[in-house]
Design brief:
This protein is mainly alpha-helical and 276 residues long. It has two domains: 42-130; 157-269, no CATH class. The protein contains ten helices and four strands, in the order αααααααββββααα. A two-stranded antiparallel ribbon has the order 1-4. The chain has a two-stranded antiparallel sheet with strand order 2-3. α5 packs across α6 and α6 runs antiparallel to α8. It is extended. The chain starts with 14 loop residues before the first helix and ends in a 15-residue tail after the last helix.
Length: 276
Amino acid sequence: MCNPKGIVRHGNKADKIDARLLAELLRTDALKPTDRGEQSIRGVKELALSYIAVVRDGARVKNRLKAMFRGRGIECNGTGVYSPDERKDWLAKLDSPALCSRADRQWQELDWLQRLSEEAEKELVTEARQYAATRILRSVPGIGPIRAAMILGVAGTPHRFRTKKQFWGYCGLGVVTATSSEYQLVDGRVCRSKKRPLLRGLNNNYNRAMKEVFKGAAKTVAAGVWKSRFEDMIVKGTPASLARLTLARKIASITLAVWKKGERYDHRKLKTMHAA
């Protein structure tokens, strides 16, 4: 594998011309290799993609199920509508045999997807255990067996990212502010507008699965080992969403650092928490 960005082409472009150029560059050792890791993780990657697909299909079915009840004006907050023990009560609220049949099929689909999700999760975790990187990733606060397997299967190797900011962008944790109309005329005077800037993702092409991993890890540590740090940020006036983002960035930075070094996380080496 090579990085094609450094290849300079002149004149016409065609498959044969490109092949000759690449062969000549390879002969003269002028190609820059792309680091893909020391060993293949194709199995983990395929199982991670399978797990992601099944989980998202299950979320879609849940959304359809709730949308059906809400479309009839039936309140269905919480997770009770998914419970097998309460389905008879929910069916009694529907006023049509056709609707009952529709709901029953969606419940059957949800049950099947949940079984598939459990099987996909078990296979993914079992496959990921074969790699030493999994043990390193699991040592990071908030990263358990499933999240470690997802990071390994989706990201593949830490050497794709030169800095932590690149990793943040890949994971959807890079945020920039966007604002316009900062000034306005008030009684003939130019005054600064009080409109708050919007927060947007740094990169729209981030990997959604990685964002879910680190957001979940941030929620875990905010209620666990880093609870005091999370509460300190809240007391200082940081909104809860930005405090969780700070924790997610910290976890992502630690993950990238220990993964590159091949060392397990050591809390004694952790620097004082600060806003990323």
